[in-house]
Amino acid sequence: MERTIARYRSEAGLSGPNDSHTRSLEFWRREIEELQKTINETEAQLRHCIGEDIEMLGMKELKQLERQLKTGVERVRSKKLRIAAEQVNWLKGKQRSIQEENARLKKRLHELHDGNISSRIWEPTARKAIQLRTIDDGSHH
């Protein structure tokens, strides 16, 4: 009896108590099927990109795949070259900075070295002058 009523409602376009639930389930079933189809197609494309499962592809599909791969390789190379150029520029800046620091340290070393030589030249003379003053001061008393 319930089946007959459900069939009548269905034929007449009347919704039953479970009709919205049934529509919801049907919607999600179709949604799952579509997503599964998309996943399968994407996985197949990925396999083709790495050279797998290409035996069944025709000339047109192979040429399209080749174009896609060339475009991808060009993008990868471009990105790689951009990163390499950035690294080279950074390293050149680092080199400049290190060379400037090296020049500054060399200058400081020369200043210290020259100062050390001056003190060695003047130190004995200064000691003699102090000794002479001490002697002079002692003899004047």
Automatic annotation (TrEMBL):
Which spans does this entry mark as compositional bias, Basic and acidic residues? 1-10
Q: Which residue stretches belong to region Disordered?
A: 1-21
Stored InterPro entries? TF_Kbox
Check the record and name the Pfam families matching this protein: K-box
Record's Gene Ontology CC terms?
nucleus
Q: Residue ranges of the K-box domain?
A: 25-115
Q: Name one GO molecular function term.
A: DNA-binding transcription factor activity
Name of the protein in its database record: MADS-box transcription factor 14-like isoform X3
What gene name is listed for this protein? LOC105139403
